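Exercise: predict the fold of this chain.
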Amino acid sequence: MTIDGQTAHLGSRADPATQVIAVNGRPLRLAQGHHYLALHKPVGFISTRRDPEGRPTVMSLIPERLRKLVYPVGRLDADSEGLLFLFDDGDLANALTHPRFHAAKLYHVLAAGNIGPKAIAQLRKGIVLEDGPTAPAHVKVLSRLADATVVEITLHEGRKRQVRRMLEAVGHPVRRLVRVAIASVELGDLPPGQCRELTPAEVERLRRAVEGRGGDGAGRGGQRQ
């Protein structure tokens, strides 16, 4: 990263309004007036602005001044947790949730039982679900417990409850699911229920990821796991 052509170092400060900030030689295209939030969604919250059943939504977890401006980009089920975006930039939100955008979504999953080589191979190859076969997933075993397995799963699709359905199909129901990254943005150590603004560099990386992938006509829906 450079600031006004000079290499930035740890602790360097810059004013995006008056200085030229570049990453790998490319100036950051900062969207004036937009808000880009990363939220650590806890279990029990609905990923919508309002819920007709009166259940708590993620909007109650963000600053009140932003609640009428931003909306969830993509979804996480009430019983799932982890990284969720909230934007007021419709173009970027639509591109990120468009079917032609194949952003890698990384999950850490606690699944029942000892997931063996056969089940791992099935997940990596793709699972035939009721709505058709899934694309191959990247699967890595992180640890094994007495009666459960912790796996890291990377998907490039966004079907409803896809991770849960895939693991159930191979006989290992999900006990806990945490989305830890979307594209190049990581959940990191953000505490559950807390949110933060994406950095200009993170927003720029998301923009680059969707360049040339389409996004016309996409709605505000998105992946739900």
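Check your answer against the key: Residues 214-221 have pLDDT under 50 and may be disordered.
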